[in-house]
């Protein structure tokens, strides 16, 4: 396992399009935002535990949401990944090679035994955190090339943030195994909810984008209830806004890992707290194979 990390506390301004190399692949597309004024918006989104109940996930009550298309340019970070950091932008691309073969991502026991420790060390190396607890993961796409299952996890194209500020506290209280420690974390420690997103093959179709946290005012965020198995949680939807700045990495490879924050309890107002994220359509790549990716979600805690 190898990792190349950098998380400078200096908050650089994003590069202008004119200062980047000519090989960048910025894309004009539409991002799909939930219509927060539509009937049924406040009905909880539901992710049942029972696989059979998930077979018609989009037809479940609360999961049929009205969407609004917002045109945007998605900036390709290209080879300039060091310009984007967790504390400044809310996301960071890191060069990291896993020892795990793709088949491991089909086996929950192997994921927890082999992949989790690698990513835990990566998070600690990048952030300086003292404690990491993984509470969820998701494989997207036909990881097995012969998998014709129409109910596999597809890329999510609706703009969202997995946890609201209240939802992040609920995750800590419900998912950490030591409840006394969880209370201390919520009351006294800096903590984050972080996603670590890895392609399993180079990504062309349905690439994954995140926003610059500085372009998302709190006034654009709208709380949305989520029922995930036995847990009642809360996420953010967002009002469409042409000022939102979107980023991705064209042809992102398996060793180009994206780390991004859904929540940060840090009190420094200059530190990014959360980003929005979504898959999007690149019309020039629709003929390419389905996206294959793997993401883990973690509670990240600091001593300070």
From TrEMBL:
Start-end of Polar residues biased regions: 1-11
Region described as Disordered: spans on this chain: 1-21
An example Gene Ontology molecular-function term: oxidoreductase activity
Similarity comment: Belongs to the asaB hydroxylase/desaturase family.
Protein name in UniProt: Methyltransferase
Organism: Colletotrichum chrysophilum
């Amino acid at each position: 396992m190898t990792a190349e990390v950098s998380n400078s506390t200096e908050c650089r301004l994003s590069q202008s399009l004119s200062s980047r190399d000519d090989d960048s692949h910025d894309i004009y597309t539409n991002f799909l935002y939930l219509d927060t004024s539509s009937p049924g918006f406040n009905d909880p989104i539901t992710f049942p535990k029972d696989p059979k109940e998930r077979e018609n996930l989009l037809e479940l009550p609360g999961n049929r949401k009205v969407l609004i298309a917002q045109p945007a340019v998605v900036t390709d970070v290209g080879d300039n990944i060091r310009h984007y950091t967790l504390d400044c932008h809310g996301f960071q691309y890191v060069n990291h090679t896993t020892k795990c073969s793709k088949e491991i991502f089909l086996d929950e026991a192997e994921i927890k035994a082999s992949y989790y420790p690698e990513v835990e060390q990566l998070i600690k190396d990048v952030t300086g955190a003292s404690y990491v607890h993984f509470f969820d993961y998701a494989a997207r796409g036909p990881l097995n090339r012969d998998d014709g299952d129409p109910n596999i996890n597809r890329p999510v194209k609706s703009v969202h943030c997995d946890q609201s500020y209240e939802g992040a506290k609920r995750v800590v209280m419900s998912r950490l195994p030591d409840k006394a420690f969880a209370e201390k974390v919520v009351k006294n420690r800096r903590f984050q909810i972080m996603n670590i997103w890895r392609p399993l093959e180079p990504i062309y179709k349905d690439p994954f984008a995140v926003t610059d946290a500085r372009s998302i005012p709190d006034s654009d965020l709208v709380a949305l209830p989520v029922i995930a198995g036995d847990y009642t949680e809360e996420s953010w939807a967002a009002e469409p806004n042409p000022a939102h700045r979107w980023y991705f990495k064209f042809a992102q490879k398996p060793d180009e890992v994206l780390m991004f924050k859904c929540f940060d309890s840090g009190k420094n107002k200059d530190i990014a707290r959360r980003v929005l994220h979504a898959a999007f359509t690149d019309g020039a790549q629709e003929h390419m194979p389905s996206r294959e990716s793997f993401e883990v979600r973690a509670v990240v805690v600091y001593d300070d």
